[in-house]
Amino acid sequence: MVAVAVAAAVGVLLLAGPGGAAGDEAREAAAVRALVARLLGPGPAADFSVSVERALATKPGLDTYSLGGGGAARVRVRGSTGVAAAAGLHRYLRDFCGCHVAWSGSQLRLPRPLPAVPGELTEATPNRYRYYQNVCTQSYSFVWWDWARWEQEIDWMALNGINLALAWSGQEAIWQRVYLALGLTQAEINEFFTGPAFLAWGRMGNLHTWDGPLPSSWHIKQLYLQHRVLDRMRSFGMTPVLPAFAGHVPEAVTRVFPQVNVTKMGSWGHFNCSYSCSFLLAPEDPIFPIIGSLFLRELVKEFGTDHIYGADTFNEMQPPSSEPSYLAAATTAVYEAMIAVDTEAVWLLQGWLFQHQPQFWGPAQIRAVLGAVPRGRLLVLDLFAESQPVYTRTASFQGQPFIWCMLHNFGGNHGLFGALEAVNGGPEAARLFPNSTMVGTGMAPEGISQNEVVYSLMAELGWRKDPVPDLAAWVTNFAARRYGVSHPDAGAAWRLLLQSVYNCSGEACRGHNRSPLVRRPSLQMNTSVWYNRSSVFEAWRLLLTSASSLAASSAFRYDLLDLTRQAVQELVSLYYEEARSAYLSKELTSLLRAGGILAYELLPALDELLASDSRFLLGSWLEQARAVAVSEAEADFYEQNSRYQLTLWGPEGNILDYANKQLAGLVANYYTPRWRLFLEALADSVAQGIPFQQHQFDKNVFQLEQAFVLSKQRYPSQPRGDTVDLARKVFLKYYPRWVAGSW
Question: What is the pTM of this model?
């Protein structure tokens, strides 16, 4: 009976298909036709016929596409929604034309004539939702985007079948209206908001004030951007998830309402209470539903609604009480503020809180939260399911529907990483779990534009009913599509990467780059990896061997740079180990040799290599931030925001290097000076016969780190040098040393 009741709740509230109005079908078809023209150009686009027909879905809510034609006829692409049609188009381009769509650049050489589809190929997704984003993605990747970049991303989302995604831009402008209406002053509001690069954590109640305030022009631009994002998402039939009130308020609310019942939460992320320790409204306080409904009413008035809202009350923060009654009341208050405005509201909850603090969230506490919302009205993201699934220890979230998500990346770090075996088998295992309430798959990285093979697989799994049967063959085909031609050495390189960097397993797997290269140096750095480094170096050799045939491919050049960058990262660890051993043995000559190569040869070579590709330039990263500004002072402010996020992540290095990147300019002027200072300090210690003082070094190196953040130095935003030549130069110098074991 339990299973029947759960299935009924999920079925009624979450498996209903989109509306069937002919106008919606026509609009979605037009959106897909426009996508085809943007993607392929108006000439090739004429070879495709696109239609949207709700009746194509034989089961309510399960997106379906159908492909036919080609050869001497136009290719017919039909979908039950615009997203389904776009996914069908992508399937045709991928499987019939050998094309590839990617963040780093797409390979879209169409064969002529266009291949014919044998008969009629029809595919239905096994689940209602294909979800995308993490609250943190908004800050680590999207924060400085203009409409042109958002348009590209929404096209990517549609082609990959995404039909549920966060749309959180512009909410601070709505909150400003609400706070002013409540009686807060503009100065109090300005003091509350963080700077743009840290808004994700302000929205989840972790931070306030840090590196703010937000300029008035920011609010205007973000409102405009949000309208365009929502309009385009809806034109494809996607469901945008809007924000809702989670219970956190500015301290100034206590001035306006002296009797208000609030709890000052604990600190977060090593920040003191100047920037954290948010104020949380008591669920029983009468002002809670007022603020919650005011915000949502104003938000819906501005943007409309698709009835799904995101809110996270206890993200990485321990609740004031572990009593189930309190947790249930806090959850109920958030939900009731939603349905006071929208009776159809469904709450999208990031399940990260249950995974992040398992010692607090026991069975009774989890049950209190999940049971406080009617079944089917809470949609939980099992955010890190590829490594640490929560559904298995919560009886499928106590009957609430959930989405199996791959988190994969933390902080938007560079670094080859993946758990492809776990990702490949995870969704099927969740579907087959006893009394499973899984209603979708999702991609929830903190940062994007990295490790594209992982996201290509995950997007494909959103439409598969079973795992990919042969991952080795799959990655070989992935490489051929990506580069536009099959090459045996490139395929072999990718199979080695699949067996090594992309084969992390177990709960310890996290896509967070902790390489010594991007960490503040110390004598206690961990250089262990989950793979055999020999596989990385051999893959490097094989990929470089294929350069003579593949160098014209932009994606190949990107991958060659990325793999060379990874090899250099491995070499940094090895030279660091040699330098540390020399220090501990008091061998000054060996220390100077290893340290000299690391800091004066290897890192400069890496920076030079990175500078050859616009996708690895600090200058491009910072120019994105500056381009949002309406004045030089504002541009300087945004650039400083961006620099802080990449490095110190707080005024005192509070979450130091969490969002590390390997970018030309950042390696030269941030990571390299740190390493030189560290190695010089070790050499001085050996020469003078005194112990190395880590505490003193940390104080000294902080001055370098802070100077980089506050610097006004401009960096090139155009690449220089040839990637293949520079990669070969690094290879010829260091690969023989690796083979000989004499690095």
Answer: 0.97
